[in-house]
Design goal:
The complex is a heterotetramer, with two copies of chain A (344 residues) and two copies of chain B (341 residues). In chain A, 34% of the residues lie in helices and 20% in strands. With 344 residues, chain A is of the alpha/beta class. The chains are: A alpha/beta (344), B alpha/beta (341). The interface between C and D is large, with 42 and 35 residues. Bound molecules: thiamine diphosphate (2 copies) and magnesium ion (2 copies). One magnesium ion binds next to strand 4 of chain C. Chains A, D: It holds the Pfam family Transketolase_C.
Chain lengths: 344, 341, 341, 344
């Protein structure tokens, strides 16, 4: 199923037949509600997930429909309730654990990395952990260094985990449903600045497979690989570049693990020029792996080195004038693209 | 921090009794003034938020002033504290200046952290504040480590670790308390039990008997009315002296209440706590009112004292906000500074 | 797991009294046999290590048999346990077979985890063992989550979380116990207090009163002589029934001792514990000797019973080791299997 | 100071004047002892560090010299005592915290990443955290999935942290002394299989600066960038390659953060062919960043794509026949080098 090409940033005057326009936050909520209706083993756990519906209000209404037995408010115990999620998943339930800010994943690393990711392998395939950890990433919310990180590279590095980075309501809903049905631990990262982003979703049921990159925009001169929050940045840059006569292809891997290397490499072979944009810290981040994969896979086709644009390698500062300097912008992508295409 | 030596401005030499009464008045009025400073500081923060002059959010301390002020009054300036996301009160009570705090909250260059920390990370090592922490319970280890440092250096300093009742959910706290007890460290864990973890009452998040927890780790534990600054101060003095004498860690459980929402944006609260409950605390358990009434009853202070204090505090706050609003933002190149020392 | 229905092999119908005595004998002898199986299993593991036939290290359970056996005897086969780095005893007591365990310890393909887990990760979901865990305290959340699962599914299952005294140092345990108490989950935390965390006595690592810790979280707590399998069993039955009735979690503190070193390679131990201490435990507090003496005293069993059991167990162990030594290693391509389900 | 070229694997018959041969474990112990003598603010904290001297016996003798006040046995509380390390460091001490197995870093992530790494920045430069976290990496010890990981990529990704990966006794001693004198949090990873590795160290005092790669062997046809445990693997491969007429240069970055990009890029420009070898999981690991940096920096000089060899992307299995397949070997490096140099 492919999405009709309606602008996903501006509200379309009228959604095409069979499609509805919703926000990314609604998409998450719908995916959860649908899966909870479909499968009584699905339950939610986290801080302030019930009546409060999380500080982002993404879960509002779920406790009213599914009750406090399935939408469970926990103490502020990220390690503890993630571990509880692992135990639930190992014994026949399909928990979705909510880690409010991605920065708090630091507290649950052992449960995610040493337990959830390894149980299936260590048991020789006998036990499995169908656990979803929903969490957030992204800066520019003026929340400073401990509430603004994008730590998805860490989990992409760990075999046994899958990592999902939706960038539109359509992707968010379809990927979250897939995550819940997956028999493995899945880290699902939502950009907290994107909950209000609007976009089309089909009326009916759908899922999106992992490991399939989405070409968000076709182009021929340059490939911009962008993840999560950076997809809109890349699309904005592509629009600007069009004015300059540069045709940019924008590809969203959607999952960093598994990674759809083939689509990335093919696009690179086609355009010969690549920029990789991601909101995690640049060094040793997701841009490194993607750049390395493309540099190797499309080596003989590249006209220029693969360029990377991650977050500045600094703790995220509070002051808006500083914080805004840490995150890749359309202007920065455009600059880089111009250089890459010999336009400066 | 409260200045320990006072002088009288009156003409004739004071009798012993008069001197002690004057000292008492001055001491409690100074605590009153600190609490009022926090209260009006927070009112101003809320206004800055409402008028979209402050970036991000802030967690207001209003209602809990007696805890920070009562505890910090028992500390030396070189004693350490660690603070929380709801940390403006701790910071002010330990001796930070209003203007540089406002500047930090606005992300300005003269702020305590050059605008890099903001409300949730204010630190001021000059007054011994090792920093607010946006990770619930995140400073339990830091405070305990600072206490080990004090003990190793034989500096006679003590450390106060402030945290909310929600931090009782974090395993780190128990790990740290265990080591503090094992090694008899000069650290006082101060729990600000304001009944809620964000939007969830702590009866839903906290099993068993809260006070039994530190006790189980061999930590001397006391409970106090966190709205009564005199009670808090008395308990803090006891525990600080104990710690300074090398008698080990303590835990002080302060029952208190936040008058505002979880943060400045938390306006609709009725789904998790009733307006009646809020009104009751504000009417009956306001730490400023409680201290004010007592001072009046004791004949230690009258309207003019309070009016004078309020005038002074309002001027301070006003000047502080103006300073902050007019202050420059940090230079863009500062973004890459201070990543490494 | 102990079979609940027994039959007598004698000729004439038994009187009621005789039947009950026979049942009693059979029950305790089966526990004796399980303990002996663990003991001889571990002796064999040590030999495999000494003769360089086993890869890596192993943490032997010898001396602590009464805990695993007494607790698991109170469980149904479909009840869950989580285990530790010192987990052979739990695994066997819950119903795993000797041969496949040896195979796992040798990294062989027919091992419980196809050789991928080894000693520290043995799991056998068929007998309800959710797995050993090489992270101290690492299974506290898993066990508690399994208990929540049992409660949600209304399955009537209970969960036992085994861990050593060292796990009292891990904050995760307190986070998990808090939630177990809040939600009244059917989980029993079984602490195997063998006095040491690796090479450090727990008096140096554990402040306050260990039993007060679970109690502070509102968890029903009992202490038992972990060398006396009858006492362990009685307590476990009580706590398991409680949990199964929906009366919530419990904590069972079992005082015990490991007869070997921390792991098979820990030979020189005198710097952290004395030979006298070890000898005393082995001579006075061996769970096999204690149960054996009692059975003899009660006239429930005599030499011939024990000889017969030992013969059987030795044969089992011998066959198991042979099986494992002869078993094939996993196919190299298995290395990339089971990363994802 | 440069090291005399004596084989570091086989015991030299006689150390050159001014040099001694010691093991890597001894090098660590000497560095700690010398720094503790030099600076009374240095103290050690961790599980079984005192009388036991850690399970690896690396710290044996230190408690006897410096006493239990400076060599402190802790409970099994990785988060707690790392946090205590942060507090010590913030208030005038220079703690060295011992995390027995690198896998247990998962428990202390919040203290390392959200606290230690960010305090200096968040305080606008006023507070600092001169903390060293010593820990281990490396597989093939038959310790299975939770005791065999090499997680240094995670920390290399975090601004505010420095990451050190010594590969010889000489480097270990000099770099550890630098780490202790550094005013920032430093993660110091020791390969647990390398404690018995012998090598030369100078009689006298020396330190090694961070961010300076070491050319462990010069060569002209191929650059092998190798870290930690993989340096010996690369050197062994280089010896074999020499037989085949391929001259391999082996470069050890020694610190991944800061990374000496220039030395890597210059070598790549010289040889035109690069293999990056590291024992962390390959995907999203250290090899990705190094490959990306070189691919970009030496783009116009490369004759072939930069190749990467990390650990297999699987949890480390227990069974020796499987475990040995997960770690790069000299033979694998040789094979890759041959392909790269067109020798197959
Ligand atoms: C580890 C962690 N988890 C969750 C949060 C989000 N959060 C911020 S404040 C808060 C509630 C804290 O409650 P409490 O400790 O009682 O402090 P209070 O806000 O009541 O002063 C939560 C859950 C956080 N900052 N850190
Ligand atoms: C989180 C963690 N820290 C440290 C270790 C290393 N380690 C393995 S066993 C052990 C001691 C455990 O003591 P205890 O829990 O009492 O169990 P026992 O070995 O006495 O049965 C330690 C420190 C570990 N495996 N996991
Ligand atoms: Mg609270
Ligand atoms: Mg023990």
């Amino acid at each position: 199923m492919s999405m009709p090409s309606a602008s996903s940033t501006a509200s379309a005057p009228q959604a095409p037949a069979g499609w509805r326009e919703i926000t990314l936050g609604q998409a998450i909520r719908e995916a959860l509600a649908e899966e909870m209706r479909r499968d009584s083993r699905v339950l939610l756990l986290g801080e302030d997930v019930a009546e409060a519906g999380t500080p982002f209000k993404v879960l509002s209404g779920l406790v009213e429909e599914f009750g406090a037995e399935r939408v469970i408010d926990t103490p502020i115990s990220e390690a503890g309730f993630t571990g509880i999620g692992v135990g639930l998943a190992m014994t026949g339930m399909r928990p979705v654990v909510d880690i409010m800010f991605g920065d708090f994943l630091t507290l649950a690393m052992d449960q995610i990395v040493n337990q959830a990711a390894k149980v299936h392998y260590m048991s020789g395939g006998k036990l499995k952990v169908p656990l979803v950890v929903r969490t957030t990433l992204g800066a520019t919310r003026r929340s400073a260094a401990q509430h603004s990180q994008s730590l998805h590279a860490w989990f992409s590095h760990i075999p046994g985990l899958k990592v999902v980075l939706p960038s539109t309501p359509y992707d968010a809903k379809g990927l979250l449903k897939t995550a819940i049905r997956d028999d493995n631990p899945v880290l699902f990262f939502e950009d907290k600045m994107m909950y209000q982003l609007r976009g089309l979703v089909p009326e009916g049921e759908y899922t999106i497979p992992f490991g399939v990159a989405d070409i968000k925009r076709e182009g021929s001169d340059l490939t911009i690989v962008a993840t999560s929050s950076m997809v809109q940045v890349a699309l904005a840059a592509a629009t600007e570049l069009e004015q300059l006569g540069i045709s940019a292809e924008v590809i969203d891997p959607r999952t960093t693990s598994p990674l759809d290397k083939q689509t990335l490499i093919e696009s690179a072979k086609k355009t010969s020029r690549v920029i990789v944009v991601d909101e995690g810290y640049q060094s040793y981040g997701v841009t490194a792996e993607i750049a390395a994969v493309i540099s190797e896979g499309a080596f003989y086709y590249l006209d220029a080195p693969v360029k990377r644009l991650g977050a500045l390698d600094v703790p995220v500062p509070f002051s808006p004038v500083l914080e805004d300097l840490t995150v890749p912008t359309p202007a920065a992508v455009v600059e880089m693209a111009k250089t890459l295409c010999g336009r400066v | 921090m409260v200045s320990e030596h006072i002088t009288s401005s009156e003409e004739r030499p004071l009798t012993r009794d008069e001197a002690s009464r004057a000292r008492e008045r001055q001491f409690w009025l100074s605590l009153y003034e600190q609490m009022l400073t926090i209260r009006l500081f927070e009112e101003q923060v809320n206004e800055l938020y409402m008028s979209a002059k402050m970036p991000g959010l802030a967690h207001l301390y209003s209602g809990e002033e007696a805890v920070a002020v009562g505890v910090c009054a028992a500390l030396r300036r070189d004693d350490y504290i660690t603070s929380t996301h709801r940390g403006h009160g701790h910071c002010l009570a330990k001796g930070a200046a209003v203007d540089r705090m406002f500047a930090e909250l606005l992300g300005k260059q003269p702020g305590y952290c050059r605008g890099k920390g903001g409300s949730m990370h204010i630190a001021d090592q000059e007054s011994g504040n090792l920093g607010a922490n946006a990770i619930v319970g995140g400073s339990a280890g830091i405070a305990t480590g600072a206490a080990l440092s004090c003990k190793r250096r034989g500096s006679g300093q003590v450390v106060v670790c402030f945290f909310g009742d929600g931090a009782l959910g974090q395993g780190l706290l128990y790990e740290a308390m265990n080591m503090a007890a094992l090694w008899q460290l000069p650290v006082i864990y101060v729990c600000e039990n304001n009944l809620y973890n964000e939007y969830t009452p702590n009866s839903e998040t906290t099993a068993g008997d809260m006070l039994a927890r530190p006790r189980a780790f061999g930590i001397h534990t006391e409970e106090v009315d966190g709205q009564d600054v005199r009670a808090v101060y008395a308990a803090a003095v006891r525990l600080v002296e104990r710690a300074r004498r090398g008698e080990g860690p303590a835990y002080l459980h302060c029952n208190t209440y936040r008058f505002y929402g979880h943060h400045v944006g938390d306006i609709q609260r009725s789904y998790y706590r009733s307006r009646e409950e809020e009104e009751w605390w504000k009417a009956q358990r306001d730490p400023l009112k409680l201290l004010g009434s007592w001072l009046r009853e004791q004949g230690l202070a009258e309207d003019s004292h309070f009016a004078e204090i309020e005038r002074r505090v309002r001027a301070l706050i006003e000047a502080g906000v103006r300073f902050a609003l007019e202050a420059p933002y940090p230079d863009p190149q500062e973004v890459a500074q201070h990543v490494y020392a």
